Amino acid sequence: MSKPKVVITGMGAIAPNGNDLDAFWSALINGKSGIDRISAYDTTDHSVTIAGEVNDFNYEDHLDRKEARKLDRFTIFSLVAAEEAINNARLDSGKLDSDRIGVILGSGVGGVATLVEQQMTLHERGPKRVSPHFVPKMIANIAAGHIAIKWNLKGPNQTVVSACASATDAIGIALRLVQAGDADAIITGGSEASVLPLTIAGFANMRALSTRNDDPQAASRPFDLDRDGFVLSEGSGILIIETEEHAIKRNAPIIAEIAGYGASDDAFHVTQPSVGGEGGAKAMQRAIADAGINPEDIDYINAHGTSTPYNDKNESSGIKMVLGEHAKKVKISSSKSMTGHLLGASGAIEAVASVKAIEEQLAPPTINYTTPDPECDLYYIPNKAESFEINNVMSNSFGFGGHNGVLIFKKYNP
Known about the structure:
Helix content is 33%, strand content 18%. The chain has helices spanning 21-29, 65-68, 73-89, 112-125, 134-138, 142-151, 166-179, 197-205, 244-249, 278-291, 309-323, 336-339, 346-360; strands spanning 6-14, 36-37, 50-51, 101-106, 157-160, 185-192, 235-243, 256-265, 300-302, 331-333, 362-363, 386-387, 392-399, 403-410. It has a 10-stranded mixed sheet with strand order 5-4-6-7-1-8-14-13-9-10, with helices on both faces. The protein has a two-stranded antiparallel ribbon with strand order 2-3. Strand 13 (392-399) and strand 14 (403-410) form a beta hairpin. Helix 3 packs across helix 6 (142-151), helix 7 crosses helix 13 and helix 10 crosses helix 11. The chain starts with 5 loop residues before the first strand and ends with a strand.
């Protein structure tokens, strides 16, 4: 039995370099970074003072202020990005079978800001002052729950937690559910809001973060010899996926096809990727096979590209392992050079970038790429966006715990 074709009909985005889809894409193709000095808290005692914050974000345009107080920032991001995606897809759940529309999201840490806030309340003011909204505000699955409640979506509803592969795995699982006939359409992607003193300190003490505090916008430099760590950031990416039949029946705008998903685990180390990128390579191979294409059919790769010493060289090795000679020809870039690392939401915002690359036949660059690393010897679209024929895109995500998730997007052909 052949799998139904699954298409993307709408997208929404909130990122450090753009608070909606158009602004985000414009920033990417123009090489605009959203990384700056942290404004949310006093960084005086911190070794890392930069991050990718979402700024000038007015949620009151989308949510009731009283209700928003009961929501963690990561949930607010997901609701606003979902609204944009739903509107772009012209998805009117009131006119569709709500039992057949689901929500599958990914988040690495969920409502960690709420957790930190309420722990401080407990410590400073005692147990009776802990908010009764604490648990339903903090749990990672609550963003998907709120999206379902707001739009009356009664289909499958799950949240995936696989570190920095969370959103990619969520999109992949959503694809599987639609292919299996468990839903006609799914709102999928991821959200994260963890730019906090605790998380910054934790990653900094692991020596995972860039310490280029004096030049924030040059700090994230994937595949560059002078990279010194990733930059923590926040935001959300949401996609509407549905069967081609369902999309055509409701006269929806079809942007691209989501054609393949592959996953694996390194089973190697808690934080480091497997040597040579073997685990990631297996996920790439599985995604390409699932999409029914050959490695040489990949035109563009939106890399995980974290700007860390281990990831970038091992991802490059994994790409060479899978693509062979074609690896020297394929064009690659890392959106994280401009957005920073959205942790569990990174795969979602990068899926949005991948689909836009197909739609516009234009790939965003890897900015801050000035000094090639001999161990990263592929073509990383340096510093300026490039226009070329883009039919098949591979998007990679790898996370702590050895989680690897890879998606394949195709140009839509009716």
